[in-house]
Amino acid sequence: MSPRFKQTRARSEEDKAEQFERILEAGKELFLKKGTMGFSMRNLAEMLDMTKNNLYNYVESKRELWIAIRNKFYNQFKEENLEIIKNHKGDTCELVLKLYEHFLDFADRDYDKFKMMFNVVEAPHSNKVGPIEKKYREYRLLDGTTKLIHKGIEKGEINGDSASLLSLLSYSFTMGVAYIEMNRSLERTPNKVWETIQLSRLDVSKEEFKEKSLKVLESMFRSGI
Prior knowledge:
This protein is elongated. By secondary structure, the chain is an all-alpha fold. Helices cover 71% and strands 0% of the residues.
């Protein structure tokens, strides 16, 4: 194979990867704007100034696209978690709290990612299992947290009898905090039809809400329930 051919092929793969990233980003925007039922591959192709046939060369269905988008975000989240674990100095309870703080920060950085990752936008139905779905492996994020909590209990750094119960409670609490803060940020936009619980009118800053939430988690881990 000639050097020029290798260079051309590498550039072609690079261009294809960049285009796939554009498809994922545009797909995320369209899913959030139209919802699962309103989303169409035709509309996505128009957004990207592509033909529908060309779009199908990258992803064969909107379900496959939905999975690919979530894969991207979960991989990013997992890699950042692994970096936190790698660099951690301290006891197990502190590590679990760092991971939950990262969960809140990750959601806060981009609530659109949060919505796609945690099924606020539901998966499109398909009778066919595509190539991306065939390769899908569960991320099992909660399993990792449960193992860490179990380790903390064994070392006497976390107070509790059931790592599974503590893991489920702490995950549910943190997910709720992230979801509430997401809605608080939405309510700050001037829209009179938002007749929700008026969360944004409570005199609590985002920073204070996060700080106190983490203190509640620490108290649960240190003191037991």
